[in-house]
Amino acid sequence: MHSPNGDLYHREREMDLLQGAVGELALGRPTVATIHGPHGIGKSALLNAVPRLLPPGTLVLRARCHPSESQFPYSMVSQLFDPVLGGAGGGTPVPGLGEAGPTHEALLGLLRTTRSLAVDRPVAILVDDLTNADPHSLRWFSYIARRLDDLPVLMVATLPASAASQVAEQLGPLPYLLRLWPEPLCPTCTTELVERAFDSPVDQELAALCHTLAHGNPLVLHDLVTRLRRTHVPPGSPDPEQVLPIGAQALSETVLAWLDEDDPCASELLTQLAVLGPDTEPAVCAALSKHGEVHDQQARETLVRAGLLEAGAPGRFTHTAVRPAVLARVSAHERLLLHGRAAAVLARLGAPARQTADQLILAGCDWGTDVLRGAGIQASGAGDHESAARYLRRALTLLEQRGAPAADGDEGAAKEAREREESFLDLTVRLGAVELHRDLDACARQAAAAAASPLGPVRRAEALARLASPALVSRIEGAQPFVRVCGELAALPAPPREHLLRLTAQTLLTGHRSGLRRAARLAAADPGDPAAHVFAGALAAAAAASGRLGTARRMALRVAAGPAGAPEGTAPGSAAGPVGAALALTWTGDLDGAAALADRLISMSRASDDHATTLLAHLVRSEVRNRRDEHADAHTDAEAALHLARRLNAPALAGAAAAAAARALVGLDRAAEAAALLAGEPAAGDAHPFIKALSLQAHGTVAAALGDHTTAVRLFLDCGHRLALRGITHPGCVTWRAQAAASYRALGEESASATILDGAPRERDAAPRPRPGRERTVLSPAEQRVAELVVRGSSSLEVAEKLFLSKRTVDTHLGRIYRKLGIHSRHELAGAIGEELPV
């Protein structure tokens, strides 16, 4: 039954017990009742309800104790007896009371006074907040309570929960002792109280939220409802996001303030848990507070009873509003100090590095480089690359703030300087390896920092070999450190074999050939090890790009088979091998082999959490599927690559993925969508020329699909120019020639179409190359096209740009034309060719 009793809710059991005590009083028998509980639970309300239950004529003696009066002897006793005895005697009501202490004579005198008052009528002694009484009065209360066997006296006192054990020790044996523990309000009573406060029905969600925030504490609930009414929260349709901050403020100004007064140890523990986190171990809290684990456990029990912590370990907050309320009372300076002390304690206790590092960062400490390094290693091993990067960046900052040691020329300073550079390089490479999983541009910056280390070419090469991922060469900034260090390493008399092979593989993918000859000799000496396979894969891609198809396919198939005994997996430093082999197989026409290798590469890179390699494998598989006319699947792969590129902050690779997706969309007859996709993807200014060529080809493909063949031809020719910058001359790499020829035909320029395909293999979908209209001609098709443009007034450079040839090649064509026609200059050309060309 949850019905109100006066102003009391959920107090039927306590009121029945008090009614029983009053019944004993009416029969002339004593009762000592103690009401325990935390602040706000309603102890004083129960005490104030006692006078209404007393029989008529009962003498009521009342006192309310306060900490400010605890230094005055017998201040509580005076409050009780002055109203009935103080005026009659004109002074102290009982002889023997003084400041020296509660003498036995004084206590006997007070007992006689109590007996005299209880001769003719029952006496009720009501004391609120007994623990705040002065020591003399506390001694009197205990003395009197044990000597009421034959007196009609009812003593009722309220005490905090923390005083329960002390009272039990002093009064426990008494047969007439009654102990009351008011319980928190139940949800039903909370709802009734809230509806009464609002004077209207309330939303059940609001009532439940109020109950959760107040944890059944009537005073906190009253304060909360008052604040809700003051801020005009509608009871019928409340906003929980509005109620929660109000509840946090109510907690801050009630329960937390009580803890500061009554239990500083519990208040300190609550602050620690709010600042450091509720999962903080008890040993750490005990070391921070310096009170010991016993006091810490007692403080936890106090917070559980107050409804702020959940029972059991770890001590989590009962609801989310508690922690913000506590933190609102803690200054920023105090937080920093607490985090710093926690970091020192955790380091001393040998806590996990990540836990200590979190406190170091929050405190802004100027120590702990090794701890932060260890935390970065732990976080990276657990796959938490965001946290790992944060730890390692902080460690690098501390190392930089420490500054270089003084260069005084002694051996100790030199050793310290080298140790600092070693530590700086190690942290840089570790951070770069972490960034490889989350931010490729940031990884490229770390690679550049490692390449600038003063520790020598071998140490720099060792560092960069750990970061050698083909994803980094997508931008010039990411490729330059590898090219530079690889050249330094190749110039050494005896370079480390593994480092040279891995760095040379990286530079081959950039289009450079630093250290190629030396690396090739080293790889040939032991072609079966992992480093040789990495080099072979990159070399296969380079061979395919330059048209050596047989060599490229042979090497790619060997890489696809894998080194003997290699584990099933891939690491960023080994990805250049399978990625290069997959490209080589694609460009040499082995689409089945390329697709199988790409499938395997995706599976292995996902297992090793290598998102960069996964991205590249999706791009390769998208290219394979586009060439197979499986455009829907190609689009799926390209979209996956685009998502990963954006996630890894790799704008160049995002451009390549967008280009692949656009080509697939054109194949699906969705050219408008392809155009919108390309328009929405910003181009990376320093992207690899091959990636720029892919983007130009995609734009040209979209333009041709939309009917703008003039723009398409220009884009296709620019694409070929970009490819030539990196020595990619094999037409099977990018099919720009066939597409340009098709656009030339669409524009009616048959001769240009024939010239652009001269020397290039036919594509499956390419139309037969147009033949010259006349059977006999002195000039080859290429020479005819050059002659035509020259007769029309184009310079050699203009002809070269138009036909995507070098100026040297154009001049060579002109020399042959002059010899065949027996002329010596371009001025004679128009007359010499006569009717051979349509001018």
Short description:
The chain has 839 residues and is mainly alpha-helical. 63% of the residues lie in helices and 3% in strands.
Could you characterize what this model shows?
With 839 residues, the protein is mainly α. It has 41 helices and five strands. The protein has a five-stranded parallel beta sheet. The radius of gyration is 44 Å and the shape is elongated. It starts with 11 loop residues before the first helix and ends in a 6-residue tail after the last helix.
Helical fraction: 55-70%
Judging from the principal axes of the Cα atoms, what is the shape? elongated
Number of strands: 5
**Average predicted local confidence, pLDDT:** 84
Beta strand %: under 5%
Strand order of the largest sheet: 2-3-4-1-5
Number of helices: 41
Could you list the spans in which at least 5 consecutive residues all have pLDDT below 50?
1-6, 87-92, 564-569, 759-777, 835-839
Distance between the termini: 109 Å
List the helices and strands and how they pair.
Blueprint: H1 12-26, E1 31-36, H2 43-53, E2 59-64, H3 75-89, H4 104-117, E3 123-128, H5 135-145, E4 153-159, H6 164-171, E5 177-180, H7 187-198, H8 204-214, H9 218-230, H10 240-253, H11 255-262, H12 264-276, H13 282-289, H14 293-305, H15 322-327, H16 332-349, H17 353-363, H18 369-381, H19 385-402, H20 411-435, H21 440-451, H22 457-465, H23 476-490, H24 497-510, H25 516-525, H26 530-545, H27 549-561, H28 576-587, H29 591-607, H30 611-627, H31 631-647, H32 651-667, H33 671-680, H34 689-705, H35 709-725, H36 736-746, H37 750-756, H38 781-791, H39 796-803, H40 807-821, H41 829-833
